[in-house]
Amino acid sequence: MASITVRDISKGFSGQPILRNVSLDIRDGEFLSLVGPSGCGKSTLLRIIAGLEDQDGGAIEIGGRSVDAERPGRRDVAMVFQSYALYPHLSVYDNMAAPLRQRSLTQLQRGFGLARLLPEARRKEAEFRREIEATAAMLGITALLQRKPAQLSGGQRQRVALGHAIVRHPKAFLMDEPLSNLDAKLRDTVRAEISALQRRLGATFLYVTHDQAEAMTMSDRIAVIMEGRVLQIGTPSEVYHDPADLRVARFIGSPRINVLPGEVDSTGRPTLLGHAVDFKVPSSAGSRVQVAFRPHDALICSADDARLTGTIQHMENLGSDILMHLALPGADEPIIVRESYETAARRRLGDKVGLKLDPQKLLVFDEAGSARLGQDAPVKTKAAS
Amino acid sequence: MRRRSSSSLVSSIASHAVLMLGALVMLLPFLWMALTSLKPPQEIFRFGLHILPEQWGGAENYGRVFSDTPMLRFLVNGIVVCSAIVVLQVLIAVPAAYALARIPFRGRSLFFSLILISLLVPIQVPSLFLYLGFAHAGLLDTYASLVLPFIISAFAIFLLRQHFLHFPQEVIEAARLDNFGEFEIAWRIVLPSARPAIGAFAVFSMVAHWNDLYWPLVVVTDPAMATPPLGVVFFRNQESGSDFGALMAAATVISAPLILAFLLAQRTFVRGLTSIR
């Protein structure tokens, strides 16, 4: 196991920048997710760490040792691909044996089927067999060892791909959207299994996904990447409750966060949709701000009790909770509020209601959305310039 | 419903009749060759059309082929030369095709265009230079002079490149992470998926070189080094071409291995050619 250090990595394809001076520290034994919308450069970063792609600038260290001059096979990291990337002509057993054989047998021993004849190779093959059988048992694929990949279901291939990565005890695991080809139900199961596996192995996992829910549920820490920059790195709850950037706040969390534009008046209080609210922000009078809050941090009350009012446009029934979509005059998009089933049962579409916000829970950003305002706003954990 | 199926039956019969007619036209020369090889000389030259032999002349004709010529030697030469050509062609084409399909390098598309262009150049164009080269090297009348001009096959490189292009990139990358070298990836990971294409190519190459008369005629004068078609030419010259029964027997003997090989490999052959997407 090993830590991974990414320093100032930049990369472009045909003049188009993909990564801009990205730096990351992945601790030994940590589960770190790289999350961001598609095309943000997260997969490219993973491929650069694996050595499948060369960076234009910057350096990669694995276990404290620079690997920039090393080819992928020498970096001792294992990768799990979105398509699983199993060798189509080899059985599951031989798929799992391939990384072991390629590492510890000589060219001669593995080249011409001599492995069975040379005593040294035979001893190693017996070792490999023990290793493969133990890994297969851990993943529950012992019964599949003699099958070819084409004879396996998607979920089984996924397990074999994990086995192929685990069996040789690499320094780190790199996973590139490994769950995106599974159906929704299976994805939830495998998600929990991969987390359990990581704890059991105590291994360093670098996990790329575009699905913020996957990143939230599985990771020790999350790095949110957009447009080739790391916007924030932190634990799932830091990224969720203390977003350093409005884009992070918008990307993390489902249902999405609500954002209202405001203007700071002479007393330091922002005006939302023309209504003054009773808290101050550290911003000069006349400047514009963006005020964001999570759907569970607002309350719906009667229209007379609140300054902000709107009409119920849509109700989304999640079973235990109902998501109320409110149209507020002057707001670009509907405001989403989470209500319990009992409270929401009284409401009807088209009702005029009031919206109460908890000042403690509001997240205030500057007009561009790239900086948090307010006394208790956290300093940006880490963000590339 | 009934009418439709009966009309489709009629059209099916009609199309099969056309196909069978075509097949018959193709097969007729071979059939005639085989039948003539079974007839005694007086029957071959008799006036009028007689399809089946009335008297059995097969034993005599085939006997003469093997007693008057070193036919076995010709066949062995043919097998040695053709196998050497096919094996060397594949050995060279696999890494070349892999590099052209999967390894980005400067001038790759130029190399590929040159290979495509060389598909258009027949052996007759460089034959004089090749002949002079082999003559100076003292390699005339050797297996080397029969094999070496053909070991780089533009067609094989092209065919395999098209197959390798469709091999999933992520599997190649997984192999790189597993510490496979590029040669090992080409031979042990990518090649197994191209087996049908290689089978098809091997049949093509075998047929072309087994039947080739031109190049052996240029570099071989010693009957001991003759390939089967050249052997038949020598045989015909000795006999002034009058003994058609024996000549046809010789022709039957040299085409039989190919027909057998094709029948055995037919399925692979068709799959290899039709699976290029």
Description:
The complex is a heterodimer of chains A (385) and B (277). Chain A is of the alpha+beta class and 385 residues long. In chain A, 26% of the residues lie in helices and 31% in strands. In chain A, the strands form 4 sheets. A 6-stranded mixed beta sheet of chain A has the order 6-7-8-3-9-10, sandwiched between helices. The radius of gyration of chain A is 26 Å and the shape is elongated. With 277 residues, chain B is mostly helical. Chain B has a single domain (70-274), classed as MetI-like fold (Orthogonal Bundle), CATH 1.10.3720. Chain B is 73% helix and 0% strand. In chain B, helix 4 (71-102) packs antiparallel against helix 13, helix 9 crosses helix 10 (182-190) and helix 11 (195-211) runs antiparallel to helix 14. The longest helix of chain B has 35 residues, at 2-36. Chain B is globular, with a radius of gyration of 24 Å. Chain B starts with a helix and ends with a helix. At the A-B interface, strand 6 and helix 2 of A face helix 9 of B.
Which helices and strands, and how do they pair?
The complex is a heterodimer of chains A (385) and B (277).
Chain A: E1 4-13, E2 16-26, E3 31-35, H1 42-50, E4 57-62, E5 65-66, E6 77-80, H2 92-104, H3 107-111, H4 119-139, H5 154-166, E7 172-176, H6 184-201, E8 204-209, H7 212-218, E9 221-226, E10 229-234, H8 236-241, H9 246-251, E11 258-264, E12 270-272, E13 275-276, E14 288-293, E15 298-302, E16 308-317, E17 321-327, E18 335-340, H10 341-344, E19 352-357, E20 363-366, E21 372-373
Chain B: H1 2-36, H2 41-44, H3 58-68, H4 71-102, H5 108-118, H6 127-136, H7 143-147, H8 154-165, H9 169-177, H10 182-190, H11 195-211, H12 214-219, H13 228-238, H14 244-274
